[in-house]
């Protein structure tokens, strides 16, 4: 009996020892293997998700991702239009640093084709690279993905969310044996806001179920219908994310994959997309990094999408270019308390194309927000695309004259200010999170305004922003306004003059 008990104890010890070896060896392997990097990018949506507390969102898959990763409460893009925003996270640079200061479809581009970026940096270090969905940054040759499928914008949703998942599954199979970088760019929630397509979402909401986001300022049946279908787009996006993550799990590679989910900018409603208001710049950002990030965290630090590239490069043990202004997010992901973090966040717009031309900068800290308009009192053509039905690009999700007539007086005043902005705007985001009450001329806030102006100028000087020079501002606007007929779009070799003059200015000491 004693001998059998002794043998049983030895067997149990051996089993426990092998169990520890079996389950500890993958951890060692994962640590020694460069992580895969998956970017999931959605179109034209702010943090209108369930995990961000939105009352109308149907986003169980993204909510689950947030519970498995880290959710950033205060994440922002530097420019709230597609091409500039995407160029920022791909290069890790501000728009005035990389040159993509307008839409690619309107001939805006990076200053040069050899700009270091997500694709070239990872590819040169052994990563297999892929893109599913649109790129929308010029020149495309600067981003030499190994594979690129579903290449168009797909705003009509001809390719379904299932198609995106299938393409991703094929990429996972093709990449086995090598670390990989994949960017999956879904078309939702870009206009048109499609209620239901290909059976998704299964339970769409209608205008009686929702209200517009509080920063929009108007609430009419016509606008609520657009808002409802915006939420339907987000529900369809969520299903697509769920299918994509299922394929990642099925491939067996989830444990060694960092997942970044974020929106490319805010929603296309008044004071959203295209602006430097919070509705345009604030986005959802969720990062899941198994074995590294502490799951379930909510971080409140000020985050920019220019932080994504330095974070990914550090995770992959790749040296980042020295000129990147972003921060490595790993200290926040592992739930440490960094000794220092950024105090200010930068935002910018040119209006993105000639018929919407208007230049503004913004700078915010944890509480206050400054907006700087270097051509004060002139017409903001971008605002017109949301407020003026005669504008050639008036959007269906804008506010018609009839819609605006229902707004309260503070909203009407804010719309008027947006249409012809003053030199500076100042908002107390703690008391006025939706930026209705401009405090720029309030003597009680003069010191705060002065501090933010100084901080903005300092950032522009450090990053060599050509728009710090009024001559560059005026020359850029003059050329934009002279091309409102948009004939340049049919000119094969057309090139905006800033692509030569701004690099020359930036090179000056």
UniProtKB/TrEMBL annotation:
Stored PANTHER family: ARYLSULFATASE FAMILY MEMBER, ENDO-4-O-SULFATASE
Keyword Calcium in the entry? The reply is yes
Which key words tag this protein in UniProt?
Calcium, Hydrolase, Metal-binding, Signal
Q: What range(s) does the Sulfatase N-terminal domain occupy? A: 35-317
Name of the top EC class for this enzyme: hydrolase
Similarity annotation: Belongs to the sulfatase family.
The entry lists its GO molecular-function terms as:
arylsulfatase activity; choline-sulfatase activity; metal ion binding
Write down a Pfam family by its short name: Sulfatase
For this entry, the protein name equals Choline-sulfatase
Q: What is this enzyme's EC?
A: 3.1.6.6
What the entry lists under PROSITE patterns is as follows: SULFATASE_1
Please list which residues make up the signal peptide: 1-30
């Amino acid at each position: 009996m004693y001998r059998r008990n002794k043998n049983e104890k030895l067997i149990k010890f051996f089993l426990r020892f092998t169990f520890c070896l079996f389950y500890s060896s993958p951890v060692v392997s994962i640590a020694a293997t460069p992580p895969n990097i998956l970017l999931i990018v959605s179109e034209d949506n702010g943090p209108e998700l369930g995990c961000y507390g939105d009352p109308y969102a149907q986003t169980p898959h993204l909510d689950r991702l947030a519970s498995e990763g880290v959710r950033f409460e205060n994440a922002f893009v530097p420019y709230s239009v597609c091409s500039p925003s995407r160029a920022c996270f791909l290069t890790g640079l501000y728009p005035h640093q990389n040159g993509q200061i307008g839409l690619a479809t309107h001939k805006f581009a990076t200053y040069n084709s050899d700009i270091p970026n997500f694709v070239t940096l990872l590819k040169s270090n052994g990563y297999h690279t892929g893109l599913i969905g649109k790129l929308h940054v010029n020149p495309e040759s600067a981003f030499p993905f190994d594979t690129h499928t579903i290449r168009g914008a797909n705003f009509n949703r001809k390719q379904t969310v299932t198609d995106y998942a299938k393409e991703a599954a094929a990429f996972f199979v093709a990449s086995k044996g090598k670390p990989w970088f994949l960017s999956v760019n879904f078309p939702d929630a870009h206009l048109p806001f499609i209620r239901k397509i290909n059976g998704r979402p299964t339970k769409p909401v209608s205008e009686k179920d929702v209200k517009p986001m509080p920063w929009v300022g108007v609430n009419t049946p016509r606008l609520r219908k657009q808002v409802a279908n915006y939420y339907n787009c987000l529900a369809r996006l969520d299903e697509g994310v769920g299918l994509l993550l299922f394929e990642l799990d099925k491939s067996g590679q989830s444990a060694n994959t960092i997942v970044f989910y974020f929106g490319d900018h805010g929603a296309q409603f008044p004071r959203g997309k295209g602006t430097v208001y919070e509705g345009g710049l604030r986005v959802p950002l969720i990062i899941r990094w198994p074995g590294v990030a502490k799951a379930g965290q909510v971080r409140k630090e000020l985050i920019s999408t220019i932080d994504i590239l330095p974070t990914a490069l550090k995770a992959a043990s790749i040296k980042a270019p020295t000129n990147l202004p972003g921060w490595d997010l790993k200290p926040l992901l592992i739930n440490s308390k960094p000794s220092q973090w950024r105090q200010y966040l930068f935002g910018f717009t040119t209006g993105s194309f000639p018929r919407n031309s208007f230049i503004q900068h913004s700078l915010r800290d944890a509480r206050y927000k400054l907006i700087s308009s270097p051509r004060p009192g002139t017409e903001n053509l971008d605002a017109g695309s949301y407020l003026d039905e005669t504008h050639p690009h008036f959007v269906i999700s804008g506010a018609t004259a009839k819609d605006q007539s229902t707004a309260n007086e503070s909203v009407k005043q804010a719309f008027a200010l947006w249409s012809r902005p003053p030199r500076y705007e100042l908002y107390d985001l703690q008391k006025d999170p939706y930026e209705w009450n401009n405090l720029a001329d309030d003597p009680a806030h003069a010191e705060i305004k002065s501090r933010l102006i100084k901080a903005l100028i300092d950032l522009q000087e450090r990053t060599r922003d050509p728009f710090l020079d009024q001559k560059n501002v005026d020359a850029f606007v003059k050329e934009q306004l002279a091309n409102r007929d948009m004939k340049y779009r049919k000119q094969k070799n057309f090139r905006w003059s800033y692509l030569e003059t701004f690099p020359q200015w930036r090179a000056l000491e």
